[in-house]
Each structure stands twice: as structure tokens, then as C-alpha cells.
Amino acid sequence: MLTQRQLTILSILEAAADHYTAAAQIADECGISVRTVKSEIEVIKQSLKEGSKAVLLAIPSKGYRLEITDIKSFADMLEASRQQLNSEHSMNEQPIRIKFIILMLLNSTHYVKKKKIQSALNVSDSTLYLDLKEVKQIISRYHLEMLYKSGSGYCILGKEKDKRACLAYEDVYALSLDSSASFNADMKKINHIKEMLVEIFLKNQYKISEVLFESLIMHLLLTLQRIEKGYLIEDSYERDKCDDKEYQIAQDIFEKFIHRRDIDLKYEIAYLAINLRGKRDYVDYKSVSDEIITFIAASLEQINSEFGVDFTRSIDLKVVLALHFVPLLSRMQHDMQLKNLLLTEIKQSFPFAFDIAQYFGLLIYEKYHIRISEDEAAYFTLYFNYGLENIVLNSEGKKLLVISSLKQSETILLRQKIYQWFEKQILQLDFINPSDLSRINISEYDALFTTEKGDTLTKGAAVNINLFPTEKDFAKMNLAINGYDSIDAILNCFSPELFYVGKAADRSQIVHRLIDMAAGYYHLPPKFEALVMEREALSSSYFANHVAMPHPLYPFSPQTFIAVAILEEGIEWDEGRQVKIVLLVSTEMNNPKAFQIWPYLSSLVCSEELVGQVLADTSYENLMAVLRASLLDKF
């Protein structure tokens, strides 16, 4: 494996791969002599030859240039060297060694030989003896026992739930996550767990607090890792101890994340269901202390105040910061901060995120009186840049307000679902209790939503959405935020269930037929019919080209829809006006952008040719095809 200095030289050459770099320049950057550079280059050349990952070219008058032949193998080699260096550096302190031993023993299905542990830690017999003595004392707190078998080595015995508690409470699991190479994988896994949990809790209409939600993500990271390694909760938990709803949710969770059919998860499911019902174990059962979680939350608030970037609702960022903060704090307390060979590249690529990471370092210093190095700050830069990529920082971002009587801690599912739907469009998402609405200026928001029935506070300005939002709520919210932004958004207002081809005696009969179809499909109250007929009494709803479009006096339905009748024989609508196509148009209440449907419909109604095409083939499929063609130049 390469040394730290050799890795630094490789990093310099990799960054300047398009040209030759003089030995004097490398010496200057590394703070060593030219002779030492040449000696190190020879070692590096030999190391690269072993795997044919790259070629180090040398020209006396120019210097050195790195030509990478296998990018993946080269990157893997560098990361393996870095991890070994970091591991060797960390193992100088007993607290880190103890965590490593616990993790090593709990991750093994067999006895672990003493020589294997000793080789991994690079310690003497006496040091290992003291470390194992401390390990035995720590695991006993969790009803676990360490056994030694001559010729075989060491193992830890006990129940799986107790082993998981040890991994969590002793920060051992968080220690296993601390690798820059694991960043993308960790973020992807955390984000996947978050999104799946949101879907499952929404589907089951299950309320959950933000603290519980974040803790459950961390718990599942550990649980899934243990199951993947073949370690399952024992048969000490039965279904009859938990509620059917919690059991169904737990079952849904494991079906989403575990696809193996060769293992029996019934006790895992029951164990998770019991904890969900209690809604307390996960708050306590986590790998990160309350102090660290509180510090990170306060730091993100401070960052928002200073930088104008709100990370406070980014669960992904909070979880990964918390998990990676644990081993960082341990290293800092023992003065063992890591080197980051990509420091220069990170600073140049993500300057704003690096500034935030540096400020986060100042907050760490104020709290823990320990300064983090630029190298450590560079690791945090990756996390903050991830957060920045998921925040809209320009003026085009939307400010949304949701009026709800839910407690702030209970809005987590609704909040996360809105972020999933409109992640790249939201500049600010606020929740407010109806009783506090008078304290703010709602005109500052681009769109208003409410989970409250019978909205009287905003006088109809807020779009009503469900506490557990569905795709119908997405359509309503998307319309309020963006208007109609695609052809499909218009076509989705039509439905084959609201499509009629046949005869009608007169105007009244066909209007009432369409009203009955819509009322049955959308469960509309009698007032809907009254509003349509009231509007019909005011003035003609005939538009052009044998098309009439009756509609309510004002927006009334929970979502926009269009019921269609194509008549085999024309009927008299007004004096001297024959109608062959009737569109009953109902726009969504409390959504001003819903009115945008009208100009799009005019593309059909005002074209004699398009109306003729609809009448020539009276199928629903043809109607959709003609409508799509009429809208091609609108989007």
C-alpha cells in the first residue's frame, strides 16, 4: 500500500493529468526535496505496475505525467490505500480500537482468531489484552457475553436485539459509515429509505413525528445491514402483541427493502410493529445522542440565518450529518483528524458548500472547543453540497404555505411528500396553524394549501389537500404551483367514465345527464347541479362550431374535470344554434390557476376542422388524439 506522501504526489499528478509536472513543483507542494520526490516516484511506479491501473511517464526536461489506463481500478486502489492509512491512524487510540473489535466480532458468524484481530489493529499482546477486557465490560451492559475458545478465538454471544442495541448505543454502527467513499452510497440509501417510509405511512394514513421519523431511518439502516449479513431477531415476538395496523406497516416496510425469499422475517416484522405501536423505542434506540441531534439542528438554523440557505427540513442531510459526526467527534477528541487528498479539488468545485462547512466547523469549535481542519471540512462539504443541490436558490423558486392544525412535529409526512413532488421548485415551504394565520402576510406566498375542511380564513384562496396526499392532490397542487405545464396535464382532466355518445331530447336533458355522471363519479353534492343551472340561466353557454360548454356559476369541485357528450343528432341550444358536442367544464375551487383550462379548450372549440374530426370518429380515443394534436404548439 502507498504512504500518505505517495498518495499526495499521485493526487497532484492526477489533477494535472493533461500536462507534465516538474519534480521541483511537486517538491514545493509537498514540502520535501527533489531527491525525495524522485525516490517516491520510483515506489509509485512499481506500485502502479502491479495492477496496470496507470502509467507514470517521465521526461527529464519536462517532469512527470500520470496516464490512467483503468479509471475504476485506479480509483479503487487510491481509496483502499486511504482507508488503510486512516484505519492505522485511528487505531492508535483505545476507544476507536474497542469499537472496531466490537464491530468485528458482531459482524462475524464464527469465532475470530486472536491473530486476525491483532493484525487488524497492529497492537501488542498486552495492548490487545487490555482492549478485550474493556470490550467484555462494555458488552455486558447489553446482556452480551464474550467467549474465548482455544484454537478458535473470540465471539460474542447473546440475543440479536441486544447486539443491535450495543451497535447503536456505543456508536459502533456510525463508526462503520465513516468513509468518504461511502458518501454516495450512504446518501442514496438514506434517501431511498426516507422516500419508501413516506409512501408507506401515507398509504396507511399513519401519523408520525419528525423525531420518530428520523430515528426510524437510522434504525432501519442498522436493521437492514444486520439482516443482509444474516442476523435476525429471535422468535420472542409474536403478532398478537401488536396492532394489525402497525403490523401491516412493518410488513410493508420489509417488503420494500428485503427482497430475499429464503429468510423468514415474521419476528422482525412483529418486533418492528411492537416498537411502532409504542412510538417510543425508536426515539431512544438510535446510534446518535440527543446532544448531537440537537447541536446539528441548531447549527442548521444558524446556517440558515447566516447564509440564507434552509437545510432544516432536509432529513437526508440531518441523518447523514448525525451519523458521520459521531466518529468525527471521537477523532477530534483524540486529535486524530483525517487528511483529505481531494481537498483542493473539493474547494475549487464546491466553494459555497465549503464556506458553509467551514462555518459549521466554527460552530463545532464554539460547542466542543475543538477546531476541525480544512481536510475534515472538505468531507462535510460533500454533504452540504448534496443539500444545496436539492434547494432552489434563485428567485424562480416557489414559496408555499400550508394551513393545518397539525402540530409541527406531525407534518413530516405531508412535508416530505410535497418536497418529493416539487423538490426542485420550492424555495420555501411553511406550515402554520389556522389560529396564527392573522400574524402573517399570505400575499407573500405563491400558493396556499390547507388540510382544514371548510376554509373560511383565506376566503377560498387556499387549495384543499388531504393530510395523507394522493396523486389527485399532486394534480391539484401542481396546477396551483405551475398551472397546466404539459399536454397530459390538460388531457388528465378528461375521463372515459365521463364520456357519452348518444342522443338527447334537448339542452336540459343532456346537461342533467352530464351533471349526474360527474356527481356520481366525484361524489358531488346537489349544490353542484344548482350552480350549473344557475349559470345556464344567466346567459348562453354556446361557444362556437356546434360546441357548448356549460359550467358552474363559480368553481366548486375538488378538482378540475370535463365531462363530454357527443350527440348523434344535433339539438337546439339557443335560438338558431345547433349543438353536437357538449363539454361540462368544472374548475377546481380555490385554485386560481385552474382557470387556465379555458384557453386550451378554445384550441379545439374554435377550430371547425378539429371539431369535424371529433364528429367523424366519436370514440374517446379519437377525442384524446384530436385534443393532443390541437395542443402541440402550446407546450
UniProtKB/TrEMBL annotation:
Keyword Repeat recorded: yes
Domain PTS EIIA type-2: 491-630
Transmembrane portions of the chain: none
One protein family per Pfam: HTH_11
PRD domain sequence ranges: 184-286, 287-394
Keywords noted in UniProt: Activator, Repeat, Transcription, Transcription regulation
Domain of life assignment: Bacteria
InterPro entries: BglG_antiterminators (IPR050661), HTH_11 (IPR013196), Mga_HTH (IPR007737), PRD (IPR011608), PRD_sf (IPR036634), PTrfase/Anion_transptr (IPR016152), PTS_EIIA_type-2_dom (IPR002178), WH-like_DNA-bd_sf (IPR036388)
A GO BP annotation: regulation of DNA-templated transcription
Protein name: BglG family transcriptional antiterminator
Source organism of the structure: Dielma fastidiosa
